[in-house]
Amino acid sequence: MEELKKIINDIFSEEIIKLVISNKSNKDVKYNKINILLKENKTKKYYQIEKFTDKQVFHENISLEEIETAVLEYTVGNYKQFTAWSNVTTYDVKISKKGKVHCSKKGGNNEKLAKKGHNKEKNYILKEGMIIEPLIDLGVFTKEGKVINSKYDKYKQINRFIEIIDDEIKKNDYKELTDMISSIMDDDVRTDYAVRARNKYDSLKDETVSWKKVVKAYEKQQKEENERLVEKKKNDSERALKNQIYKNKIELARTRIKRMHGYLYQPSNMQILIDSAKEALDACKGYSEYYNLKAMFDMYKKELEELPVKGESNKKNQTPTDTSEPVATEEPQEEE
């Protein structure tokens, strides 16, 4: 990783105008490839990241200062190669299965690529930096008017919709049309055209309003879905934690109860064994295993309490010895 980090640092000592990360190291990697393009707006240069799946492209903008870390994080463990272009150099980096990094470079004129990479930002109607309350409410803009990275695709979609409406209005300038209608001398024709123009204009406004409602409804649905997924993840996490606690309690009770079994004599810490097993057993109340554990506990407790005490048992097994003084007996007399 340090070797790759150094190579990336060396590459970005030049101004890189384009970089393509490709050749997934395993099928579980989410994106098929990642394009990184140098962009420029009125105030600064930045990098735009395009992440490609089979059906979608996800966009993200990052600063020049963040790009080296981003390339390293995207590449390590996920991809086997990337190619980078500056104005005059092409870099080709390959990573072997064992993690060995090979970097080759060659000179060349990348002027066409540079022009393409430095294309100015698209001149959107709803520009970044404008304080647009509906876009803030939708979560597309921050309160400062900056596009939220994860909502960049949605920002482009909304702008595209506004452009379509704007184009139609420009093609059919309403004031110009009404001025033309006013110049018609025939009252009936002029009235008919004026009504038709008004109806068309109103229908266009209604359609715009209905589409705005659709967009808001979609955003609301997405928000609710995201909240539902967050709640589900939280519930799953809590459920997993409870399940682990349950398993730990059962295992602890079973272990402590088994420690009460297998003695020949009452152990000196018998009461401690019983009390600790009882404490662990009580923590299992309410679980289906409780009654089986309690039956085992009662059996081993009774077994312990009926065991002999080692010292007393030795005394009972000893044969008693007569320590009293011997009794004097009369010697037998001889017969005369």
Any overview of this molecule?
- By secondary structure, this protein is an alpha+beta fold.
- Helix content is 50%, strand content 16%.
- It has helices at residues 2-11, 67-75, 111-117, 133-137, 152-171, 174-182, 187-258, 270-282, 290-305, 310-317, and strands spanning 16-24, 33-40, 45-52, 57-62, 79-86, 89-95, 101-107.
- A 7-stranded antiparallel β-sheet has the order 4-3-2-1-5-6-7, with helices on both faces.
- Strand 5 (79-86) and strand 6 (89-95) form a beta hairpin.
- Helix 1 (2-11) packs across helix 2, helix 7 (187-258) runs antiparallel to helix 8 (270-282) and helix 7 (187-258) packs parallel to helix 9 (290-305).
List the helices and strands and how they pair.
Blueprint: H1 2-11, E1 16-24, E2 33-40, E3 45-52, E4 57-62, H2 67-75, E5 79-86, E6 89-95, E7 101-107, H3 111-117, H4 133-137, H5 152-171, H6 174-182, H7 187-258, H8 270-282, H9 290-305, H10 310-317
Antiparallel strand pairs: 1-2, 1-5, 2-3, 3-4, 5-6, 6-7
Helix pairs in contact: 1-2, 6-7, 7-8, 7-9, 8-9
- Helix % is 40-55%
Shape: elongated
Number of strands: 7
* Radius of gyration from the alpha-carbon trace, in angstroms: 43 Å
- What is the rounded distance between the termini? 125 Å
Assess the beta-strand content as a share of residues: 15-25%
Indicate the low-confidence ranges by residue numbers: 116-120, 321-336
Major beta sheet summary: 7 strands, antiparallel
Q: Average pLDDT, to the nearest integer? A: 79
Task: Classify the secondary structure makeup into a structural class.
Answer: alpha+beta
Tally of helical runs: 10
Q: Can you list the strand order of the major beta sheet?
A: 4-3-2-1-5-6-7
Helix-strand sequence: HEEEEHEEEHHHHHHHH
